[in-house]
């Protein structure tokens, strides 16, 4: 017994010395960088200022062979603090964060929305050919996500599983407005009629029976390759090349479309975080599965935590998309047989390949967090946020997971500029603050990040997907709205709904600012949604335009 006690003391002593070394080395690096930045500002020398920019002050920091946070606000948390927090979780009075056991009540308080697949697959475009017929033009990029054999569909598949926002139950429904559950927004059969795999694909997998060429609205819509002369949008939305679409799947998993380029962030569709049997369970089912989405072009992974990188999604996507990841994650993906990987460090920037993506870039930006998928790989890989840029202007910011550092986010806007169209920022999983403040922002800090970035809009994500912290499961949304009102930003801040598609008009022209009052052609009748005045609902649909 005495030998075991002595061994335990030795292990604790060695671990304490290691933690002390890491903390001392980290603070030493932070002070050197801060001093260099201060001296540069005082000197006023242009060359010195350039060499002490945010890119220098917040460059990747490695201590003891592991990545470390170069931010003074960060506090390293050892395994002992983690154990204490877990014990506290077990014995606390309210382990479910106020989540009702009544599933019907939960579905009312935390509704699911069906993503607007007509918009996502871009099948609402009609071609006016100068005669009496109106024909559809299929999206040439239309193919399901996943590996080359698209999602295991056969040509006879005409249905998919969706979840009712009224009952919370799953239903196998036909992709036809006549059989939609009442809780779903009807979508035009143009989505069904014009859905097809691009010419040259091995299998012409159909998403529905296309024997009928008449839409629910009475318009004829045969599949055709006839060249378009005039394109209008029957959905009332800007055309694909003049809009951004954002659909929140849950946690930090978001399907983003920029001018027809499809991004998926931090892929996560599973019911439980760790595997099918253990780990925290979703409060509500995923609003869709990976297989239901359009083809993914790029996957942006902010870090390797299981709630931001699902193994099953990794397997399904495989090499059908290009993965853009922080340092260290290439090795993990290589073990899964994935080689289409761009591995970046903070402040790296890469152009997206292809003539149709000319001017589009991805910047890997810092965040204040940590990494690790199990006990012994903590901080072996880097963590990050991302900026999607167009013609060197920030368009979408994906924060991933982060704590708050004013110098960090002001530094990002200093390097890449202000005017970001949409900032996707976490707003949940922040309590207790004594433990989670260094790694997760609270709603007030989420709004401040928007201000620091100079972003036009903020969408709050990473809330109410799982119970991973102590705050009431609805508190992040409520507090985010309150903080937005207090800052006078109630028209520019919104906590995302599961599955609801949001459309943001965006024109690349420098003459017209997207979402500005100059975009009168895209104005819709005012309809206040969740207290966000400028977020407008399309008539007869769940889809929002901002």
Brief summary:
The chain has 546 residues and is of the alpha/beta class.
Spell out the key features of this protein.
nine-stranded mixed beta sheet; single chain; 546 residues; 24% helix; 24 strands; seven-stranded mixed beta sheet; 13 helices
Written description of the protein model:
- By secondary structure, this protein is an alpha/beta fold.
- It has 13 helices and 24 strands.
- The protein has helices at residues 2-43, 46-51, 54-57, 79-91, 103-109, 117-120, 190-194, 311-317, 329-335, 406-416, 433-436, 443-453, 475-486; strands at residues 61-63, 66-68, 125-128, 134-137, 159-163, 170-174, 223-224, 231-233, 243-250, 253-258, 261-265, 298-300, 322-326, 341-344, 349-351, 360-365, 385-390, 393-398, 422-426, 458-461, 493-495, 501-505, 536-537, 544-545.
- A nine-stranded mixed beta sheet has the order 14-13-12-11-10-9-22-24-23, with helices on one face. The protein has a seven-stranded mixed beta sheet with strand order 15-16-17-18-19-20-21, with helices on one face.
- Strand 5 and strand 6 (170-174) form a beta hairpin.
- Helix 10 (406-416) runs parallel beside helix 12 (443-453) and helix 12 (443-453) packs across helix 13.
- It is globular, with a radius of gyration of 24 Å.
- The chain starts with a helix and ends with a strand.
- Residues 125-232 and 510-533 have low confidence and may be disordered.
